[in-house]
Each structure stands twice: as structure tokens, then as C-alpha cells.
Amino acid sequence: MKKLTLQMLAKMAGVGVATVDRVLNERGGVSPDTVRKVLQVAREAGLKRPLPEAYQHPWRIEVFLSSTPSHFFKRLASEFSRIASQLGYQRLTLYRTFVAESQPEILAQRIIESGEQRDGLIIFGHDYPIIHQALAHCWARRVPVITIATDIPQAQRLCHVGINQYQAGRTAGLLMSKTLKRAGDVILVSGRIDYRAHRQRIEGFREAMSQRSPEIKIREALAGQDQRETIRHLLQSTLTFSHDVAGIYNSGVGNGEIQEILQQHQLLGKCTWITHELYSVTEKMLHQDCVAFTLDQNADQHVRLSIELMLRHLESGYQPELYSDGKVPLKIITAENLD
To answer: Which of 12, 30, 56 finishes a domain?
Structure first.
């Protein structure tokens, strides 16, 4: 009889050669049903080697997050650890990798390397061609990828988990239009404008304001680049030549610096200020009536949904809808609904 090969077993089981290799060598990352099917085919075909028990190794999932010290990413990192601990080591082994947002080449290389070792990846990254290529590499190896917080459109991914960033900007614009205390200009402070999430927030804010308060002048966005000193310098320069400010919308970091500059120009509490993310600084500003609204991305829900969808896909083959299954509700926080 002709010697059985992995290719022959894969064809008989209706799976890939890599899957047969994973099962026979107990590398993990294969659904229980597929493990049982491959082992049954191997036994019936008379494969002459010891066969493993139909035991499912823990899924190996790697999470790639930004190394920026922002509160949102600190919350994500902490929550991923917490939920992985709850699920237990027998079901999930979670790896966390932090890469600077300014280093897409390093992120792409790490993604490719992990695609050779992990069962699934959860990735925060930006819309660069090199990231598309890395995700295509994972796709070709049938390693599912979920993007988190900011999407990478047209990339080969299982689904996206996050808030609707454009809708978040429109929500901020609606709130601003309804709560301006007086006539005047509205200043926008943006994070890195080459990042999709910030562009969507600013675009949504502008459109909502132009539709609801067309008489209000929206100043050109100050490109803070997520650099606190840059934000401080740009806002200081702007307010030196303009005191007719009715509102300020910050789409990214730098709330402490903005508070300091507004106070210097005696605008703190006198203009409507809307920002993002609930943490100790913004919570204090809400209590002090400096900030009117904080739009929170709901980090806990990002983590819960991304792990839940990844495990459902790995264990049962579930194919989530690209956006609706991973949609995270935006939280609007005021001084009155703080926990």
C-alpha cells in the first residue's frame, strides 16, 4: 500500500495540509470538530503512528496595541489581561504586543511573524499599504485578523470592532450646536490628521455643525499630532490673536494642556468644551464644569467583543458581519451620569 502522506490525509478529511499537521503534532489552534474529523480519517486510513487524543489546546491569540501612553490604550491592555484570566489558560493564551503608531514597518513585520505562530490576531493599526500586505499574508495562511478601534478599509480581515468614529464626530457637533453659550468661533484640536479615526471625527463634527449651526465659524483644525507640546503651542498662538471663542472640540490627547491655556486666557468654563475618553483628568474637568461632555469609546466593550468574536470564529467557524457584529456603543458622559 502506498505510504500515507499529509497531503493524502488532508484531501480525505477535506482540510488543508497545515491543519492536518497541527492536529497530528498537537500544535493547537484547530476547532474540536475538525480535530475529531482528522483523527477519525487517520485511524480509518490506517496511519501507522501514535495518534493524539482529541484534545483542544488553548487558542493562541495575539493583541497588537499602540505603545502611546494614552488612557484608552492603557485600559485596553488591562482589560485584555482581565478577560483572558477569566476565560482561563485552558481555553486561551493571550499575548500582548505594543508598537509605536509611528512605526508601521515594525508593526507589519510583527504581524507577519505572529501569523506564523498564532491562531488569531487582534490589531490596532493604521491604513498603510505595508499593513495591508501583512494582513494579506495572514489571510493567505487562514489566520483570522480583527481590527480594533480604528478600521483598515479594504484590508483582508475577519471584521472590525469599535465605535463609528464619524458618528462620534457628528455627535460632538450636535452637542456643541445645542449647548454653545454665546456666539463666536469654534476651535478644533485634532490628533494626527493622517490617522483615519481623527479624520473621521473632525469630518463628522464639521458636517454636523454646518448643518445645525451654519452661522458659527469653524476654525481650521489645529494638527496637534498627538504631541502635547505641539498642542500647547498651536492653541496658545491661536488664542493670542483671537479671544472670540465660543467652543472647543478636542478629538485626541492634550486635555491638560488645553485646560491650562484656556485658563490663561480666562476662557475656562466660559466656552463649551467637548473631548474624548473618560479618565481621571476628564472626570475632574467634568466635575469642575470645565468640560461639557466627554465621548467615551467604551474600552471594556472593545475587548469583550473582539475576544468573543475571535473565539466564536475559531471554535465554530462563525463568520461575523464586517461591522455590525463588532459595533461598540459610544458613551456620552456628563457631570450628572459619572459612575
So the answer is: 56
